């Protein structure tokens, strides 16, 4: 499986598909601080992502993060940690609510997030 396909899957050490965990409302922590909260999360094999509402941090912008960028989930503290900096997330392709489920949009996001070290 190519890395771009893997981007849309949770890391096996982060999320076990057998568990029932709803990430909506969890705080999202970039490598350099909080960026917002999970507005939506999916758990399908090869199509998993979170939508993050950044609130006032970047003027109410929402961003879509492939599941692979999640490095840990802390259910006690309700935190999702991601392997990207605030700047990398801020500079990501704009969230397009009308097109975010289309393969071309995911490919563009995959190209962007795939350039960073894992």
UniProtKB/TrEMBL annotation:
InterPro entries: Bac_photo_RC_H_C, PRC_barrel-like_sf
Name of the protein in question: PRC-barrel domain containing protein
Gene3D superfamilies xref list: Photosynthetic Reaction Center, subunit H, domain 2
């Amino acid at each position: 499986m190519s890395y771009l396909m893997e981007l849309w899957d949770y890391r096996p050490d982060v999320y076990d598909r057998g568990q029932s965990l709803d990430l909506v409302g969890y705080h999202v922590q970039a490598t350099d601080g909080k960026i917002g909260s999970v507005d939506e999360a999916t758990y399908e094999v090869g199509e998993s992502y979170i939508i993050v509402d950044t609130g006032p941090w970047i003027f109410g912008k929402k961003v879509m993060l492939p599941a692979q960028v999640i490095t840990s989930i802390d259910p006690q503290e309700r935190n999702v940690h991601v392997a990207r900096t605030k700047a990398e997330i801020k500079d990501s392709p704009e969230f397009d609510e009308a097109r975010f489920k289309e393969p071309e949009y995911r490919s563009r996001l995959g190209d962007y997030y795939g350039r960073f070290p894992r």
